[in-house]
């Protein structure tokens, strides 16, 4: 008998971003989820796609929450890089809504594409019109995807969709696919203005077939 | 939080093994005894057994007391019992004294049945591999084919790892705590100083001090004092003793001036009065020799390819004798082999000693992991 799982309340809510990530992750593949939080994404992927997964999380309480779901979780600080993982040892490396809180932004994206054949990066789009409106009205943006006040936010490297795509071009990162969401619904028109959450499937530029 | 309690009054037992055990050194033990204790109840399909492997100075008395009046319970009592992280309402827990020990299992201070005298220097050097082989014999003796988990800290963690390598089909989970895939030169150097303290004690008599009615107490005492320094962090020693003077003023003598000295002398004296020097020598050598990657040209990933168990690896930030970096080496090799592994790095001030402390977060880690350990049949 296995003891009952804890922390499942959050897992019962449908999350559109999880569904898109699940669409990008292959059945039975090997997945590394960086900054995996309470483990709900990896738990969802293991349950729906039978992936072999590991989460990486530095926070003690989140580590315990992950253990409550039964996923594998490695406690470490992403800022130190991914030297504990072999090159090209994962099919997909995920950084879900964590990029904006990283100090070593360039380093972690490069490391993701060293360790994984593919990377999935999602982040709150700072260019979202509601954020722009709040700036115009003279205040720092607070929204569903940016729920913090300026003084307590862990976010240090906020960017817009345009910024990120320029970053990818300058760092030889190939964008394989992009999805943009607002309130869980897909956005196709003027995504940098209308989109709240940006989601990317990435590969190394030099990995592309000629 | 659940109500938790100790396992209560316990009783050691002895298993006698008559089938010879060939040791890694090539020496053969024609027969041997292992003294052990068990807590909890073995279930009907014998699938809920957990083995606790002890470290340098540990033994089979892991939890509970022999009598209500005992001053101290077993050495990991805070971890084991009904409602405790290793819950004896679910698990059947086995603690044993390793071969070469001095608490009832065959060792240098026990009687060699062939001579009727203490083994002394004749008792062979034993390795982590030998211990695990003898522990597998104990599992056989108890009718247990597969352990739900093997758990150990420090040298005990090396045994948990070795279980997964030597008997991959016989262990479902390995909990490797405050351990390392081998010792660094600095770590072995501490062991060498400890051994030299013992061996150069005039009362050592080349290990045959029993026959001379002597005890190399001074050497063992210094060895233990050295050990205690390395088991604590600088911060922990600072917090515990700082520069506190024993009598409030400096006396200009070599007697105890500082509280720290009082602590080390007390620990050294206590240990020298209850532990066997020959056992200490062998335990430190077992630490030195353990190196599963050696026969794989130092490739730990290749060495761990045999393992099938799920792993929990835990380290402590202030542990400099078995540093977090060494635990991360184990984690990396397990990841390379795509094994199921979780790793926790506990923020702790107590140094290496932290693995025996009842730190709430540390215990939450062990509790959370062990909750996921299935007790109902083979994997």
Note down, in words, how this protein is organized.
The complex is a heterodimer of chains A (210) and B (379). With 210 residues, chain A is of the alpha/beta class. Chain A contains 7 helices and 8 strands, in the order αβαβαββαβααββαβ. Chain A has helices at residues 16-24, 40-49, 60-69, 105-115, 129-136, 161-170, 191-194, and strands spanning 30-34, 52-57, 72-75, 90-96, 116-124, 173-182, 185-186, 197-204. The relative contact order of chain A is 0.14. The model of chain A is unreliable at 1-12 (pLDDT under 50). By secondary structure, chain B is of the alpha/beta class. In chain B, 32% of the residues lie in helices and 15% in strands. Chain B has 10 helices and 14 strands. Chain B has helices at 128-141, 155-166, 185-199, 217-231, 234-240, 259-274, 277-289, 300-303, 324-336, 360-371, and strands at 13-17, 21-22, 28-29, 32-39, 49-53, 80-81, 86-87, 92-96, 111-112, 117-118, 149-153, 173-177, 310-316, 341-346. In chain B, the strands form 4 sheets. In chain B, strands 1-4-8-5-11-12-13-14 form an 8-stranded mixed sheet, with helices on both faces. Chain B has a two-stranded antiparallel ribbon with strand order 2-3. A two-stranded parallel ribbon of chain B has the order 6-7. In chain B, helix 3 runs antiparallel to helix 4 (217-231) and helix 3 runs antiparallel to helix 7. The two termini of chain B are 30 Å apart. Chain A binds chain B through residues 1-3, 30, 52, 54, 60, 63-64, 66-68, 70, 72-76, 84-86, 89, and chain B through 328, 331-332, 335-336, 338, 340-345, 347, 361, 364-365, 368-369, 371-376.
């Amino acid at each position: 008998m296995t003891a009952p799982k804890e922390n499942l309340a959050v897992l019962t809510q449908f999350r559109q971003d999880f569904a898109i990530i699940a669409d990008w992750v292959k059945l039975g593949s090997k997945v590394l989820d960086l900054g995996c939080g309470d483990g709900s994404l990896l738990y969802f992927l293991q349950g729906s796609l039978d992936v072999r997964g590991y989460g990486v999380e530095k926070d003690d309480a989140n580590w315990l929450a992950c253990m409550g779901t039964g996923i594998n979780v490695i406690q470490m600080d992403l800022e130190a890089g991914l030297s504990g993982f072999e090159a090209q040892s994962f099919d997909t490396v995920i950084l879900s809504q964590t990029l904006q809180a990283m100090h070593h932004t360039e380093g972690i994206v490069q490391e993701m594409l060293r360790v994984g054949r593919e990377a999935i990066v999602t982040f709150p789009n700072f260019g979202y019109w509601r954020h722009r409106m709040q700036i115009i009205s003279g205040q720092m943006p607070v929204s569903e995807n940016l729920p913090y006040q300026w003084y307590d936010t862990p976010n240090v490297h906020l960017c817009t969709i345009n910024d990120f795509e320029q970053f990818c071009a300058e760092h030889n990162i190939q964008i394989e696919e992009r999805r943009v969401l607002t309130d869980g619904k897909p956005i196709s028109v003027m995504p940098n203005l209308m989109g709240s959450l940006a989601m990317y499937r990435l590969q190394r530029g030099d990995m592309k077939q000629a | 939080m659940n109500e938790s309690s100790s396992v209560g009054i316990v009783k050691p037992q002895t298993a006698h093994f008559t089938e010879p055990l060939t040791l890694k050194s090539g020496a053969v033990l024609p027969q041997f005894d292992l003294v052990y204790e068990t807590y909890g109840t073995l279930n009907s399909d014998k699938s809920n057994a957990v083995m606790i492997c002890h470290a340098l100075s540990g033994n089979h008395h892991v939890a509970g007391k022999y009598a209500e009046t005992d001053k101290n319970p077993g050495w990991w009592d805070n971890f084991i019992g009904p409602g405790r992280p290793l819950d004896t309402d679910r698990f059947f827990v086995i603690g044993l004294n390793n071969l070469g020990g001095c608490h009832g299992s065959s060792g240098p201070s026990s009687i060699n049945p062939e001579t009727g005298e203490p083994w002394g220097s004749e008792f062979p050097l034993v390795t982590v591999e030998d211990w695990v082989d003898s522990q597998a014999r104990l599992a056989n003796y108890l009718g247990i084919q597969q352990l739900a988990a093997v758990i150990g800290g420090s040298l005990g963690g090396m045994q948990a790892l070795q279980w997964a390598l030597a008997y991959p089909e016989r262990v479902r989970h390995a909990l490797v705590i405050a351990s390392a895939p081998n010792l660094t030169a600095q770590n072995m150097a501490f062991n060498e100083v400890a051994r030299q303290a013992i061996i150069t004690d005039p009362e050592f008599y080349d290990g045959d001090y029993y026959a001379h009615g002597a005890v190399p107490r001074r050497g063992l005492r210094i060895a233990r004092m050295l050990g205690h320094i390395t088991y604590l962090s600088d911060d922990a020693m600072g917090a515990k003793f700082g520069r506190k003077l024993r009598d409030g003023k400096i006396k200009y003598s070599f007697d105890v001036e500082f509280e720290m000295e009082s602590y080390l002398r007390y620990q050294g004296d206590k240990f020298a009065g209850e532990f066997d020097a020959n056992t200490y020598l062998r335990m430190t050598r077992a630490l030195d020799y353990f190196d599963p990657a050696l026969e794989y040209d130092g490739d730990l990933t290749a060495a761990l390819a045999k393992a099938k168990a799920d792993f929990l690896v835990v380290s402590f930030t202030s542990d400099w004798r078995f540093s977090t970096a060494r635990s991360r080496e184990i984690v990396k090799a397990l990841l390379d082999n795509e094994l199921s592994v979780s790793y926790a790095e506990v923020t702790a001030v107590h140094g290496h000693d932290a693995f025996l402390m009842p730190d709430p977060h540390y215990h939450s880690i062990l509790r959370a992991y062990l909750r996921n350990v299935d007790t109902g049949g083979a994997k």
